[in-house]
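queue> pop job 88
queue> type: inverse folding (structure -> sequence)
queue> payload:
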C-alpha cells in the first residue's frame, strides 16, 4: 500500500481537536423522551417502531460485517476492527454524557442498552461505520476517501435520526449549534470526522498487508 505522507500531521491535529469537540458538543445520553423542538417525531408510538426497526437493522448489519471481515481478515484483525471502535464510541459517549446537555436517546424506544445508558445499536453503528471507511481506504488506498465514506454516513443518518427519533438534540446555547443540520450542531459533524480519522489512522498503521 502506498504510504500516506501526512499521517503524522493528521494524528497531531486529530487528538487535541477531539478533546475540544468533546467539550463543545455537551452530549447527554441520559434516557429521556423523544420530545424536543429539534425532533421530527410527532407520534411517539410510530417513533418507537421506527427506532426498533433501526436497532434490529444496525445489529444485523454489524453481524454481517463481522462475518465478512472474518472471511477476509481473520479472527484477530476482525476483533481489532470492531472491538476498538465499539468500545471507544461507548466510552466517548458515556463520558460526554457527564458533560450534560446536548442530546439523548429515547428510553422508551430502544430495547437493548449498554451500561451508562448507551444503546447497543449505536455502538454497533459506530463499528460498522469505521469498517466501511476501512474498506474504502483499503480499496482506493486513500485515507481521505475512507474518512469521507465513514463520516459521510452521519450526513445520511442525521435526517433519518431527526424524523425517526433515533436521538433527540436539545438546545444548549452553544454557538456551534446555531449552524445545524437537522438539529445536529456543527460540532457533532466535526466530531464524526475526527473520530473516523483517528480510527482509520490506527488501522492504517497497524493493519498492513
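queue> result:
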Amino acid at each position: 500500500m502506498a504510504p500516506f505522507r501526512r499521517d503524522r500531521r493528521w494524528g497531531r491535529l486529530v487528538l487535541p481537536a477531539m478533546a475540544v469537540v468533546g467539550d463543545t458538543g455537551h452530549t447527554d445520553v441520559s434516557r429521556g423522551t423523544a420530545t424536543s423542538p429539534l425532533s421530527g417525531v410527532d407520534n411517539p408510538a410510530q417513533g418507537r417502531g421506527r427506532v426498533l426497526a433501526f436497532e434490529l437493522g444496525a445489529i444485523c448489519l454489524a453481524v454481517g460485517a463481522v462475518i465478512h471481515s472474518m472471511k477476509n481478515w481473520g479472527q484477530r484483525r476482525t476483533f481489532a476492527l470492531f472491538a476498538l471502535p465499539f468500545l471507544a464510541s461507548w466510552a466517548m459517549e458515556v463520558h460526554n454524557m457527564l458533560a450534560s446537555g446536548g442530546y439523548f436517546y429515547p428510553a422508551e424506544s430502544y430495547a437493548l442498552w449498554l451500561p451508562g445508558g448507551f444503546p447497543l445499536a449505536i455502538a454497533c453503528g459506530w463499528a460498522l461505520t469505521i469498517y466501511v471507511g476501512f474498506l474504502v481506504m483499503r480499496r482506493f488506498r486513500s485515507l481521505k476517501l475512507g474518512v469521507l465514506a465513514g463520516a459521510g454516513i452521519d450526513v445520511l443518518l442525521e435526517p433519518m435520526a431527526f424524523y425517526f427519533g433515533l436521538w433527540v438534540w436539545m438546545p444548549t446555547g452553544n454557538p456551534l449549534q446555531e449552524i445545524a443540520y437537522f438539529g445536529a450542531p456543527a460540532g457533532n459533524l466535526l466530531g464524526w470526522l475526527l473520530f473516523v480519522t483517528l480510527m482509520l489512522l490506527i488501522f492504517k498503521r497497524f493493519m498492513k498487508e
